[in-house]
Design goal:
It is built from 18 helices and 15 strands. With 540 residues, the protein is α+β, with helices and mostly antiparallel strands. The protein starts with a helix and ends with a helix.
């Protein structure tokens, strides 16, 4: 007889956890703890990171017309790239001096593999490009490539000098911030030495223009000079041939005529100036330099922005008194507001779900038992979301918000069946938990799987829509799967410890039960009418 009791005691999946309450609680606590660790490790952004299966190839040939760009550069790149498997579309845009080719891959093509194949093809065809063509730049289209922060530098000084100071004192410091991918200067003007050739003087001296360009190249360089060994020591040498000042440019020898050396100043004007202005930036009508800060792909947007702001506080102390730094186009505010709104809806939904359970179940203990499925399932989901590389964004948090109303269902079904065994068959809570859980285990599994099959296809959906909704589908799947596990482990164990019969309810439970019964009294007549008027009910 004792043997049969022992067998019954340990039979069933739920019974294993009912008779091991400490083990069951520790599993739930560990899941919550790991979920919180995953939450702290996750990045925060507005939308999920997406790999767009496309790339842009940019090639520059200074001074070339659009027709020449098309026939001498774009044509060869298109022919080479077209041989790559998985290429869906190729579009070329030929402008003066610039060839831009947009390559779109099939959705199932790995973008990184495709980009590498494009680079390999360009290496094969670049020998056909005209002399003077700059190396082609292959850019990956990335949602994270947009600027997350604009830093504006102003000062009461020339724009060239302001650009130089912004580059040295601001840009290079911000680039060292953790998570920063790149910092681009917009509206600045870099320093340049302009050499303006007088064609009449060149013609009169019979000096070709190539003599001037070669002289500038050969007399303004810095190269390794080999090694010198002395007394068992080796020294590296460099030939320092950089021209230190603008006046020294004027003294460059470009040719010799009748034994007379000709200097650059004899045929050209040399000016310490800046690059030709193609763009400008204004702040309140005053010229400024804008630094566009871009983050590394997959990094925490808020953490990067906060890190840049901390660096700016340090930079401001090192700048001259007339220079000021202002932050513009800060994405952190909109991201925080958006994430805060979704989190607010998440907590509000959980609270309202708990209120509804309390009203209709009429018991604080029953509400607590079923309500625990929400935080465990939601917080535990962060662990698996972090393992999948997801970020906290509008899409993933929306998935959790949707899951709040679903994850509590399994726990309610389990609790109701256990409570039925306790009240109807007059069983002790622990026996009711074992028998009721064993009876309903298959139903809980079936219910969980029936919901999973709805959201799981979203995780594997293809196309651009699939890339956006994949994290949404996985997030809901994680939460629902955990809710099923909680309903089969923690819920029956808590029922065996916390449930009490109706006659032992607290005063608060009795008040809630009265409200519950008033709702039931209104519901029963409606149900009775629906049963006896089936045809009318179906039509309605």
């Amino acid at each position: 007889m004792q043997e049969n009791k022992t067998e019954k005691k340990h039979s069933g999946l739920a019974a294993f956890f009912i008779y091991r309450p400490v083990f069951t609680i520790m599993i739930s606590v560990s899941l919550m703890f790991l979920g919180l660790m995953g939450y702290k490790s996750m990045g925060v952004s507005m939308y999920p990171s997406m790999d767009i299966p496309a790339t842009v190839v940019q090639t520059v040939l200074a001074g070339a017309s659009p027709e020449e760009i098309e026939t001498s550069i774009s044509k060869y790149i298109e022919e080479g790239v077209n041989e790559i498997s998985g290429v869906d579309e190729i579009h070329s845009y030929n402008m003066e001096s610039v060839s831009v080719i947009f390559v779109k891959f099939d959705m199932d093509k790995n973008p990184d593999v495709g980009i590498q194949e494009v680079r390999d093809k360009i290496e094969q065809v670049k020998s056909k490009f005209p002399d003077g063509t700059d190396p082609s730049v292959v850019l990956k289209l990335d949602m994270d490539a947009s600027a997350i922060l604009n830093v504006v530098v102003t000062g009461n000084r020339d724009i060239i000098e302001l650009t130089e100071l912004a580059k040295k004192k601001v840009k290079e410091v911000i680039e060292n911030t953790s998570g920063v991918g790149s910092v681009s200067i917009v509206g600045g003007r870099q320093r340049e030495v302009h050499v303006t050739i007088n064609p009449l003087k060149l013609y009169s001296l019979q000096i070709p223009i190539t003599s001037v360009t070669s002289a500038l190249a050969q007399q303004n360089f810095e190269i390794p000079g080999g090694k010198v060994e002395q007394n068992h020591n080796s020294y590296s040498l460099r030939i320092l041939g950089r021209i230190p000042s603008v006046d020294d440019f004027k003294n460059i020898f470009i040719a010799t005529k009748n034994g007379v050396p000709i200097k650059l100043s004899d045929v050209a004007d040399v000016e310490d100036s800046g690059e030709y202005e193609q763009q400008s930036a204004l702040l309140d009508g005053v010229r400024c330099v804008t630094l566009e800060v871009k983050k590394q792909s997959g990094s925490n947007t808020l953490k990067v922005i906060d890190g840049v702001k901390e660096k700016i506080k340090v930079i401001e102390k090192t700048l001259p008194p007339d220079m000021k730094i202002a932050i513009m186009s800060d994405q952190s505010g909109s991201i925080r507001a958006s994430v805060h709104t979704v989190l607010e809806h998440l907590f509000l939904g959980a609270f309202l779900a708990g209120i509804m359970v309390l009203v209709f179940m009429g018991s604080l203990r029953s509400t607590l038992i079923s309500f625990l499925a929400i935080p465990i399932s939601i917080v535990g989901s962060f662990l698996f979301m972090n393992m999948r590389g997801f970020t906290l964004n509008n899409i993933t948090l929306l998935g959790l918000t949707i899951a709040v109303g679903i994850v509590i269902d399994d726990a309610i079904v389990m609790l109701e069946n256990i409570y039925r065994h306790m009240e109807k068959y007059n069983k002790k809570p622990i026996n009711a938990a074992v028998d009721g859980a064993k009876e309903i285990t298959a139903t809980i599994i079936a219910t969980t799987l029936s919901i999973l099959v709805i959201f799981l296809p979203l995780a594997y959906m293809g196309g651009m829509v699939g890339r956006i909704l994949s994290s949404y589908g996985w997030t809901v799947v994680f939460a629902i799967a955990l809710s099923g596990i909680v309903a089969l482990t923690l819920t029956p164990m808590l029922c065996s410890k916390l449930l009490v019969k109706a006659d032992k309810r607290s005063r608060v439970d009795k008040i809630v039960h009265i409200i519950n019964m008033s709702l039931v009294k209104r519901y029963i007549p409606i149900l009775n009418w629906s049963i006896h008027h089936k045809t009318i009910k179906v039509i309605l």
